[in-house]
What does this fold into?
Amino acid sequence: MIPWLDPHLPPHFPDTQQALQEPNGLLAAGGELTTAWLIEAYSHGIFPWFNENEPILWWSPAPRTVLFPQNLKINRSLRKFLRKDFYHITTDQRFIEVMQACGEPRKGQPGSWISPAMIHAYTGLFNAGYAHSYECWDSDNVMVGGLYGVNIGQVFFGESMFSRANNASKCCLKALVDSNLYRLIDCQMNTEHLINMGAQDIDRNQFEHLLKRYAINTHDE
It folds into this structure.
């Protein structure tokens, strides 16, 4: 049984060591999708993930997949592609559109967890300066890829990415790394795509140690 968080109380989460092993990382339910709740969650390495019309579920999976920016791997074909300069990248120009594109159903999936409520909540984070998007544009100025996530201090919590053209989301990830703004990129879950680009799994204790080191809990300042 996981705890139910009272949305009428100030945001507070149980110790992440109480997260379930199955399903991996499920920590709590309830609370609210407000800027205060989200900042409190991410400051402790916790994120919401749930289907539309279901209770809010909060997660802290272990191990945690992260990318140390200096470990980004650019293979030969991508390096060759980048030299041709097919795309240009912008930041924070189409946040809502990037979220909507990330929320489009993927092949073999009936829907997406990026619901209108999630878009509204993360737009609030964006307006408060805690969320960012990277947009990839082709030569016709059409957005062909993007990613978005949350930042606390020098940590970027990647939420989702999309690609409508070859290497578009990879170019956004490279731009994120090249910004030199972050010491740690949280990828949340292990995927072959991210591992191939240099991400790795670390245990929860190490992840939370890095959060204390790099994530400034700015809402308490």
Remarks:
- The chain has two domains: 4-62, 65-220.
- The mean pLDDT is 94.
- Residues 4-62 form a domain with the Alpha-Beta Plaits fold (CATH 3.30.70.3550).
- DSSP finds seven helices and eleven strands in the chain.
